[in-house]
Amino acid sequence: MEEGEIEVDSIDPIGFPDITPELARESGFLGVLDLLKVAQHGRGEKIYLVRFRYLPPRRRQRSQ
């Protein structure tokens, strides 16, 4: 991954019914099972949807 920053847009609590095939694909996974294999930790009692975006590094202006 290149240099840059990650900016968090939102962190929202969700439930298992909110984890749809569409959400999984939008998140870069093949489907719900693929997402859960990567994202589930511990007992999985609390689920959060974290939306973020990559910000490329800003070009530095040369001082003259």
Number of continuous helical runs: 2
Main sheet: strands, sense, barrel: 2 strands, antiparallel
* Radius of gyration from the alpha-carbon trace, in angstroms: 16 Å
Give average pLDDT, whole number.
88
Count the domains: 1
Helix and strand content put the structural class at alpha+beta
Element-by-element helix/strand order: EHHE
- The share of residues in helices is 10-25%
Morphology: elongated
What does the model show?
This protein has helices at residues 21-26, 32-39; strands at residues 5-14, 47-55. It has one domain (5-55). It has 64 residues and is of the alpha+beta class. It has two helices and two strands, in the order βααβ. The relative contact order is 0.33. It has a two-stranded antiparallel ribbon. The mean pLDDT is 88.
Quick gist of this model?
This protein is an alpha+beta fold.
List the helices and strands and how they pair.
Elements (H helix, E strand, L loop, with lengths): L4 E10 L6 H6 L5 H8 L7 E9 L9
Antiparallel strand pairs: 1-2
Which keywords apply here?
64 residues; alpha+beta; two-stranded antiparallel sheet; 2 helices; 30% strand
